[in-house]
Amino acid sequence: MTTKKVERRIKIKYRIRKSVNGTAERPRLSVFRSNKQIYAQIINDLTGQTLAAASSLGLEKMPKKEQAAKVGEMVAEKAQAAGITSVVFDRNGYLYHGRVKELADGARKGGLNF
Hints:
Order of helices and strands: HEEEHEH
Oligomer: single chain
Structural class: alpha+beta
Strand content: 15-25%
Largest sheet: 4 strands, mixed
Radius of gyration: 14 Å
């Protein structure tokens, strides 16, 4: 049972994914945002392999925006360790503000280019 809000996000997601694809040179940084947590994965779509991932699970109690920024920095750190410097950002149908924007800014601060 999906709501109109979720259906709208899924439509936007498919529209974005038509043009955003991850390759070995520039993998895709995908964001998933739930009500309580935020997750980020760096994915090579050619092989379907997740190269790096981070989430807010296990982080100490802090505001959600700070959690998102920290997750962005963590995923950037793991990407640097895997030899990834530039990515394509996939906001996954979410609007680019709030926690999604904080995660992107944290990833940029951590050294990722997109």
